[in-house]
Amino acid sequence: MSEWYRGALENISSGLSAPEISFRLGAQAPCLGWAFFGGYQVALSALLQGLGGANASKCSSQHLVSEDFVNSLRTLRALSYSEPGLKKPEQLKTELVDGRVSGHKSFVTGGDQAQQIILLAKMINGTDIAPDQVEREGRSDIVAVTLRPELQSGMLFTAMNPLPFAPELLHSELRLDNVELTRSSQVHNDAVNRILKPFRWLEDVHVFASVLGYLSAASVAVDEKYLCAYLFHAFRGLESAYLRVDMFAQSETSVQSSAGPDANEGVLILAGLQFSLKKMTPEIDGMWAKVGDVALNRWRRDVPLMGIAQSVRDRRFAKVW
Length: 321
What we know:
Blueprint: H1 2-9, H2 18-28, H3 32-51, H4 67-72, E1 77-80, E2 95-97, E3 100-109, E4 116-123, E5 142-147, E6 155-159, E7 171-180, E8 187-188, H5 191-221, H6 225-244, H7 255-279, H8 281-291, H9 293-302, H10 310-320
Parallel strand pairs: 1-4, 2-4
Antiparallel strand pairs: 2-3, 3-7, 4-5, 5-8, 6-7
Helix pairs in contact: 2-3, 2-5, 3-5, 5-6, 5-8, 6-7, 7-10, 8-9
Protein name: Acyl-CoA dehydrogenase
Organism: Oleiphilus messinensis
C-alpha cells in the first residue's frame, strides 16, 4: 500500500487544488481501499497545514497547493481516536502525563506504515510539557499529540485482521507504554473542536474526491462517456462545497452559528453529491460489469467502506437543514 501511494505521488505536482490531488490519487488506485487511503492522506496534510495557519487546503483557482504541501504528503500519517468502548471524548483513557503518553488505540488506518501518528489523549492537570510544544489557547483536557514511531520507543502496533470490505486497506491496534515526547512532538489543545471535527469534514471531502477519481478512471477505461461526465461534474461540485467551508469553524455542532451560510451550502452540496452517487448504483454496477465479474464483485464487496461514519454526516446535515 505504501509503495503504491509513493509511486502515485510521483505524478502529483503543485498548482493543483487539494481535492484535485485526491481525485488524481484515486484515479491511480487499483482498488477502492487504496483510493480511500490516498484521500485520507491528503485530508491529514490539509488539516496540519491549516493548523499551521497556511490555510492552503481550501480550493479555488486562487487556492492551489504549494510545493511544500505536496512534499508533506510524502509522510504517511494516521489520526487515531478510537479506543475500546469509547463513545464520547470525555471517556478517553489514553493519557498524557508529564510529557509521556500511555494508552490503547483500537484502530490506526495504515497500521505500522504510518510515520506520524496524531492521537487524541486526555492531558492530566499538572502535566509538565515544554512551553514551545503546547498551544496556550482552548481547553487543555483533551489534546492531540503528534508522535513518530521511528523516533519514540514504547509504541507497539498489532496488525488487525482484514475487514470484510476493502481488505487491502491495512489497520492496526496501537498500545502506548510511557511514550516520551520528543522535540518534534506537538500538543494541540481543544482537540475535539480543532482536530477531530474539522478532520471529519476534510476526510469526507477528500475520500469522496478520491472515490470519484477511482470511478472516473474505470469509466474512461470502458468508454462509459456519460458516467464519466457525471463523475467529473460531481467532482466540480465537490470543489465548490470545499471552498465554502472553513474547516476550523465547521463542526457537527457549530456549523450554523460560526461557519455562516456559505458553509451551510457546502454541507448541503456534499450531502447531495453523496446521495446522487448512491442513485447511480445501476450505472456504476454496469460499468464494473464491463470491466469484468471480478471487478464488479470487488466493488460490491468494498462499497460499505463509503458508509463508515455515516452517523456523523447525518448529524452534520441535520444541523443545516
